[in-house]
Amino acid sequence: MLSEDSDNESIHQLTINEHFAKAFEYRKEREELQKLKDKYGSDVDEGEEDEEDSEDAESEDEDGEELTPAVDAAILRTLARIKRKDPEIYEQGMDVFEEEIKKTGKHKLSKRADKDKSKPLTFRQHALASALNPTSRSPSPEPLTHIEEQKALRNETITAFHTAVDIEDDEDDLLVPREKTKDELERQDEEYRDFLQREVGEDLSTLITIEDNGVLDEPAQREEEEPKEKKKKRDKKA
């Protein structure tokens, strides 16, 4: 009898560990992928096919930014069900985390406005077009001699080249990521806290404590650290 109870307990513990491991393995993979993106960035693509691939990658990055908080919520909901010993987690073939992660498509932290699918005209293209193609509103020029045509073409080419170089430098400056202001960071943290509290519910307070500065603190870790701090204070007094 005791052996059967022990076997059942072992099976239950193994099942819990499987759900727990899947949740954190998924999160770990996403973190490693994000580290690689932060370190190496996106490849510089050229050509139509590469531009399409770049657009697809940008779309995936944006989806990833929106889904990350939802994945966090899915992990926390999974842990909450494990902590509550939800009967469903012991059902054979049941994947609790997979069930929770499927909800991420329905719950996102924010929605981005649909982007215009047409490709915008770049600064360089606009400059070249303006320099090399006269506008239709311009009055019809008088016929030029061959020498005048050659001279005008040479001047237009030089002007277009210098304009393109100057604007290319401006483009490089514009591509530098803008650092978020303190207010923007605080608003982002507040949205993240509200999102987790809404999606995880009352179970959130039993799993983590969200500090005002946006730091996620695990209660178990905090309980372990408090006695250590008290001990240090006693040692200092002694």
Automatic annotation (TrEMBL):
Region (Disordered): 35-71, 169-190, 209-238
Comp. bias (Basic and acidic residues): 175-185, 219-229
Annotated PANTHER family: PROTEIN KRI1 HOMOLOG, ZINC FINGER, ZZ TYPE
GO CC annotation, single: nucleolus
Native source species: Hermanssonia centrifuga
Biological process terms in GO annotation: endonucleolytic cleavage in ITS1 to separate SSU-rRNA from 5.8S rRNA and LSU-rRNA from tricistronic rRNA transcript (SSU-rRNA, 5.8S rRNA, LSU-rRNA)
Name the record gives this protein: Uncharacterized protein
Residue ranges, compositional bias (Acidic residues): 43-66
Domain of life: Eukaryota
